[in-house]
């Protein structure tokens, strides 16, 4: 399902519907708080939780990739534990791209498995134990900030700077899984992802609420020998904010004839792909999608769809590096 538009209205322009839904949001927040009081597994190795406060994506997957690379460069054996959203396997199971598809383990774990060993587990504590037994020196917990199963050594909250914390209300009145002040009280660092204009907007709306060390990053396309300038494309994306992907293509100089916004993690059926391909051919355009969506493509379509690959760029990692050093990492 796609998030309702009123979730992302600024807090100072709150409409009637989120006000009416506010009592349900209070109940949702109370349920989250009650769940978090449960005792969690104390890992034998450092666990870094990468999470967010809102429903949907905020850039966690590019963040995990960047952390894998940074920790590996510091000489650590990094493994990842994920719930495997969208996959049917309960785990714990180590992701094997030669045997598993997105239907078994989810698109994000499949993508992450190219960078580090990844364990899918509905029970995150069992996933962490499996990674420990497999020799992990440090574990990245992909999502799970509102899950009490594991006690992390470090919690990093990722925020889409353009969207911020939406209207500031909890589900279903807004996008928050818990109130901002409550969630940030458990966090160690905040990473806001977006270009300068989005960072400035976030500062104006939410900067006063941050009392934590903050990293600022942006998603930048990898060249990979592809020149998008003048390329006619029909783009499709099943991510939290497809418009951001379409804007990136335009910024790279592509001629976007149309963008098909799918639901997050939506199944890429043969019927859907044939329809998009027929439309693209009629317009003399090439199909293109995100790296995460490409992980869900059926094998027969992988050579027929281009992928725009983005990576997280952070100019100053010093706040994170200081925390890693304090943990002996």
UniProtKB/TrEMBL annotation:
This is Tetraacyldisaccharide 4'-kinase. It comes from Rhodobacter calidifons. Its EC number is 2.7.1.130. PANTHER family: TETRAACYLDISACCHARIDE 4'-KINASE, TETRAACYLDISACCHARIDE 4'-KINASE, MITOCHONDRIAL-RELATED. The lineage of its organism: Bacteria, Pseudomonadati, Pseudomonadota, Alphaproteobacteria, Rhodobacterales. Pathway: Glycolipid biosynthesis; lipid IV(A) biosynthesis; lipid IV(A) from (3R)-3-hydroxytetradecanoyl-[acyl-carrier-protein] and UDP-N-acetyl-alpha-D-glucosamine: step 6/6. Coiled coil: none annotated. Belongs to the LpxK family. ATP binds at residues 54-61. HAMAP family: LpxK.
């Amino acid at each position: 399902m796609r998030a309702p538009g009123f979730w992302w209205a600024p807090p100072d322009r709150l409409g009637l519907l989120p006000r009416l839904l506010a009592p349900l949001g209070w109940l949702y927040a109370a349920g989250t708080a009650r769940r978090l009081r449960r005792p969690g597994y104390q890992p034998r190795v450092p666990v870094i939780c990468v999470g967010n406060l809102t429903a949907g994506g905020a850039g966690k997957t590019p963040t995990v990739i960047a952390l894998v690379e940074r920790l590996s460069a510091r000489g650590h054996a990094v493994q990842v534990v994920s719930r495997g959203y969208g996959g049917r396997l309960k785990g714990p199971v180590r992701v094997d791209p030669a045997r598993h598809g997105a239907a078994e383990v989810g698109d994000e774990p499949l993508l992450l498995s190219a960078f580090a060993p990844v364990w899918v587990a509905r029970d995150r504590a069992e996933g962490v134990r499996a990674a420990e037994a497999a020799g992990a020196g440090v574990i990245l917990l992909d999502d799970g900030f509102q899950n009490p199963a594991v006690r992390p050594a470090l919690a990093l909250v990722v925020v889409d700077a353009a969207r911020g914390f939406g209207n500031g209300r909890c589900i279903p009145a807004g996008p928050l899984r818990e109130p901002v002040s409550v969630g940030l009280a458990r966090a160690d660092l905040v990473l806001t992802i977006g270009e300068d204009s989005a960072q400035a907007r976030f500062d104006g709306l939410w900067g006063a609420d941050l009392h934590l060390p903050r990293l600022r990053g942006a998603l930048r396309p990898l060249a990979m020998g592809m020149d998008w300038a003048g390329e006619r494309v029909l783009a499709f994306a099943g991510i939290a904010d497809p418009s951001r992907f379409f804007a990136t293509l335009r910024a790279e100089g592509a001629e976007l004839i149309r963008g098909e916004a799918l639901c997050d993690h939506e199944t890429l059926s043969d019927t859907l792909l044939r329809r998009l391909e027929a439309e693209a051919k009629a317009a003399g355009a090439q199909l293109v999608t995100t790296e995460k969506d490409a992980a869900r493509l059926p094998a027969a379509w992988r050579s027929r769809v281009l992928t725009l690959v983005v990576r997280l760029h952070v100019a100053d990692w010093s706040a994170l590096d200081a925390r890693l050093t304090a943990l002996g990492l």
